[in-house]
Amino acid sequence: MAKSKKEVLVLEDILGSNKKLAASIRQKLRENGILAVNLLSSPGSGKTSLLEKIGFCLKDRYRIGVIEGDIETERDAERIRKIGLPAWQIITHGACHLEAKMIARIFDRIPADLDFLFIENVGNLVCPASFDLGESLRLVLLSVPEGDDKPRKYPEAFITSQVFVITKCDLLPHLPFDVERVIREAREINPKLEVFKTSALSGEGLEELCAFLEKKLEELRRQNA
Amino acid sequence: MAKSKKEVLVLEDILGSNKKLAASIRQKLRENGILAVNLLSSPGSGKTSLLEKIGFCLKDRYRIGVIEGDIETERDAERIRKIGLPAWQIITHGACHLEAKMIARIFDRIPADLDFLFIENVGNLVCPASFDLGESLRLVLLSVPEGDDKPRKYPEAFITSQVFVITKCDLLPHLPFDVERVIREAREINPKLEVFKTSALSGEGLEELCAFLEKKLEELRRQNA
Question: Is residue A118 classed as helix, strand or coil in its secondary structure?
């Protein structure tokens, strides 16, 4: 949809400076051997529940921190702290996505000796996709109740992610959701997507996902060596 | 989160001209006795399914048209046409919400003798809330799988709506979702919210919702008389 020239210029400005700042954040994190993972999805797709499970799975062997992005409330950070992980809440007060500058503002509070830094973005399958936060890995989540037609309808999140996590697979018996179709359509948009079928309730797919994250951390460390 | 002065000015500009245009759209629609209803929710909350059911329920007695807002694809408009209703697709090509100017561009194609004009916004619980489209009634949908903690986390959509529709209530036996809590928290944000518990699958609550919409149309017509 056409934007005015002024709108386009301001948007380019914002995205340009965001990109630069994100690149410097990524460099610092990678130098410290930290794998930063940005999680994108609609509200209620299960980002926090997935993080709770990943946290449980990895916390005995790795140092993990979580940045929680929300428009209002500190509810998600509280859930993460309950499982014994440090969580930093960014409240955007209306803004529909996180930006690199918000990460930069709290950067000093993030311990340099982390292994994993998970960033849970604002629940929104659209806008967060345009903003690099300095992550090394981007995960897009889609839950079974949202429907198998979403990758084509919301392509940007799938184009810019390396990993596609299907969540709430325990609900498959109750809902018309074609797993093969959703994977096929997602890979038509982005053929390189790694796909995981998961359920935070039944535990399905979580071990595989955690093993993949560990492999990615090792790769990052090898590149540093 | 602080925006630059330039960003704030451009945003005020956009919202200001959107508001003016929306007011003139609303006036024209109301003069024609058309009740325009703007539907807001996350992707996959069931906006199109609800519209299909409302369409079935009302189409023998009323003239109904549907505007479908999507980032990509004409899938939703095709679903609506299948039940015999006219549907106009607005593809936003990346934009995360509908704006009044997008409605204005297709306004000439909307028959003046409609009773109901439903506008299905882009699937996004955040940004569409800031853009008046000239509707007389705004419905926010939240599906049971999204979780009962969403009104406080995404307040703007609940503040600016008159109606809160809980969808996919057939899934209540399978999910931890406290209906009383979600209604209480939504009404703490907006005490005037009308609430409907619905399921497009079982049909729960649809008759009540349709009767409410008919009542709202009658009110609009009485104000015109």
Answer: strand
